[in-house]
Amino acid sequence: MLWVERTPKASELQENMEVYFNTLQGFILLSHGSTVGAGPTLSACVYAAVKRVVDSSFHLWKESVSSYGTDEKQSIPQLVGTVWEACSALQKTPGNNITAIGRAISQLTIAAVSATLVVIKEIIRSITSLLKIGNTNDNTSVVDSLENLLKQIQKIGEQIDEMGACLYPPQEVPVMKTAAEKISGIVDDMQKEVENLKGTSEGFLQACNGLKVSLAQLKSELDSSSSLDIESKLQKVDLNN
């Protein structure tokens, strides 16, 4: 309707807009109706997917109107593609509460793993900085703190392995909750050790806080539904979506 060899008449453009936005209005009403009985997680998924379609549609038509009668229409095909991508993503929206929760848990687990790597990276950066400025000596206190940090990182690695394994059958939600709690406790211990080394940085504190937030969100999702329901639906979750 928008990208043709000839420039459409203003009346044609107006007619196309009316048809499109009437369809879009019906789509919004239908989407709203589909959230009846939906929990907060599923509702959030539906809202995000619908918003993406609506926003990309408005952007497309705004550009179409502003470029009408000019030769500056190169962006139209790209914007049409963005709308198609939004519609394709909408088709992958979870169809029920448990699937939505299962997918959210999977994504939060991956986020926790990523946040953990950031914490470890900041620890390495802090230790490297201390070595460069000569704030550490080869004394018992420093060596003990570094040894403790190494052990704590190893323990986090073990818990990450546990969480990762729980994303595949047979899923064990209690194990995931325990692993998340253990990682949170280990992070507290790591902060104390880094403080003992006088190597605490803003980046390290932010990384630790970010990890704790991810772990808290994961635990909240795990607590929001029964273990049996989550375990059964996690088996059907596509981690790529």
TrEMBL record:
Gene Ontology cellular component? nucleus
Q: Which residues form the Cyclin-D1-binding protein 1-like N-terminal domain?
A: 1-108
Q: Name one Pfam family in it.
A: GCIP_N
Tell me what this protein is called: Cyclin-D1-binding protein 1-like N-terminal domain-containing protein
- Specify the species: Cannabis sativa
The top of its lineage is: Eukaryota, Viridiplantae, Streptophyta, Embryophyta, Tracheophyta
